[in-house]
Protein 1
Amino acid sequence: MEDLFASVAAEAHKLETAEKGDKSLLKLYNPGRMTESQTIHYWKGPPDEAEVIWIKSFYWKEGLCAILEAPSEQDPAEIEKVEKSLDASFESLKPRTFSEIPTGPGFCIESAYFQGEPPERPWENASIMVQLKDHPDIHLKFSTATVDAYRGESDSLLFRMNPEHPPHIPESHDLRFRKRQVGPYRGEEVVSRVTELNQTTGHTFQWEAMGPGESATEPALTLQMVTGYGDPAVDSSLPEVDALALWDRILDSIRYRGPLPPGSRKDL
């Protein structure tokens, strides 16, 4: 713990001596705001121009070290609110082994997890990207994310890709522009043939299912695929009919893992 707080003091000193204009970046260094914690308030740019101040808290408990940081408006009441939120987050932090999976709600990080439901709805996302070994011009990306419960029409894939609503690639021809359900997921699909500036031809494939978005078990899903990817762009290594068949096979493989959780909608 002594080594941690010595490094905190060194960071505070570095901020104190770093100037933007004629002012230090350090506003406050509090070495004992709560038991086994230290806090720094600082600016990331010129203090006179900054809209927010950053609260950085360092904690130590039961061999567990954590550094939590969040921006705040510069009003003292808002700063206190952010400090209390960081303290509450740390109090919910529990150690865990590498392979331990908590049985209750929470959010896992390396060697620990935040126990319980967060005070604010979290935003979580994960993505995987794939490049085909035998067809290096073909790239895929699959993403899943929690999203806000409210979404307007302008968030939908079909609305965004409508030629009447820029931006839209002028040298493209839509092969598919439709709603498409995959398993329980109600989505939208846009597939286009694209002619690049160097006159090569490739394809873009997009499918999105927004989902209710109220939890990690009912996420927004996105699958994307391109052919002809390169620098510069190249012609698609697959004929159009084969590229479409590959896309359909990958897209139709998306499914919910295991039974739908109790209370979930049949169509997500």
Note: The chain has a mean pLDDT of 81.
Protein 2
Amino acid sequence: MKQYCIGFISASCLTASVFLLMGAKKKTTFDNLIVKKITVVDEKGNKVGEIGNKNNRVFFWLSPSKYNGRMISLTSQKGGGSLKISNRNGKEVVNLGIAKNNSGILNLSNANGVNTVKIGSNNAGNGRLVSYNHRGSETIYIGTNDVNGGHLKTFNTFGYETVFLGTGNNDAGFLTTRDGIGKKTAYLGKSPDVRN
């Protein structure tokens, strides 16, 4: 009988220990969690983010409380993905995504949301960097031209090209300057018929 009591007490202690250890676990791990949407809220219950899928578009966005719009937005859809970042005034200032020619593109904007820098590829697949003034007019173009040579163009306030420095059709360098309405004022290079 003594052994029966010791066995019963030992089994009871072991069972109680198992329940205590199982109950002490605070962390729950899921191998696979399937949901259509996850909403992120702040301590007051205000929506500050979302992860989901709608109309064949996967999205993720975050914004601080009492902010109208999405400060950070990441989307993925059939045409490609994009990352957009807005400033505290709701103006989009960064857009990293897919261009119309299916290449990557980075657009940077000023505080008012006006595009000021564009980095990407032209339709021929050559790299380019374009700078714009605060009105959105192109002022500088640096890139690879159609004959795979490098070039730099500057433009005035009215959109007229004022300087061209680059490589021509004959793989030789040249420089062209123009006046305020685009009329050629100077040419320095191998042959003036290098560039149309």
Note: The chain has a mean pLDDT of 83.
Protein 3
Amino acid sequence: MWNKSAEAKPSSQASDTSVPVIPAPPANAQQTPSAPVAPPTPQNSVQVNPIVPSSTNVTTIAAGLKISGEISGATDLYIDGETQGKVRLPSARVSVGPNGRVQADIEAREIIIEGTVLGNLKAGERLHLGAASRVQGSILTPRIAIEDGARLRGKVEMVRSGSSQSNSSAETAAEVGKAKAMSASGKDE
């Protein structure tokens, strides 16, 4: 039927109707893609979740992205890029992916390292070092898991679950200073 009406118009106006016939299919084409545009959005958000097996609210610093400064908040964080400064998410999970390179102190409820971290780690519940992880700095946590192949250079202090968060900032600052002095001297105690 569409072709019949298009054929009827060209016989009335030979050169002018061929131009309007061309815009008519794009109008239908615009209506057709608008329906598929909505489904890809949920598919994209579904693809983000498998990367980080955590809660639905996860912020991602992707590979190729560099962040400098202080990061704080309450949502989980996945770092696969470069981060410098301080990361403070006391009620969330911080994961450093295999491409992640972090030069920062990290404070979080749960810390999972698969990449490289230069800085002190303070986990409220647990800390996990993956097989490809490289960590240099002090660790303060009630529970720790270290896979074969992980590299750790620094001090590990096991604390009770509640006391990890109740340490005074003066004590933490003193420990950070000691750890940096030890790292600078290159001597392990």
Note: The mean pLDDT is 73.
Protein 4
Amino acid sequence: MSYDLAVWYPQQRIGNEEAKELYLRLCDGESSGVLQHPAINAFYAELTAKHPEIDTIPEERIADKDFCPWSCALDHSSSHVIMCCVWSKATYVHQLVKELARKHGLALYDPQSDKVIYPDGSTGTKTSRGSLWVLGSFALFFAGIFVYSEKIAPSRNSLVIYILAGLCGLMAVVCFREAWR
């Protein structure tokens, strides 16, 4: 049993379920869902400089999991890398791959947790349309409360209140726009 990870260049953001489907296709040898990108080769070069491929290490170092944590050869192309490491090195390898993926601008997929992590640290968890409508409605409601309270009982810092109302209104517009998509 091994701990597996995959990286690819994120041409667009996809959710966790789509990332799982893409990962399974990559495991089956179909790479039509990912773009070739030089960042993949740079990632691979840096990763294998630190921990060489299992089929390139000397026979006497095969048992040294600190030197080579891989349980099998890496699945590498110019569009993706799939890595399988021994469980005893899972935490270390996950952190290393996460840092290198972020450095090279790649998406990281962890099939154990069914989560994709993008270079900015965000995940493939999508917000439901209903949640966006509710959030937008509350933002609009609070914008109205700010304006109404300023009309009823003017404060010394009217500008601050109107700026807050404007930010709430902007947040409502963004939420409604995202929910409409």
Note: The longest strand covers residues 3-8.
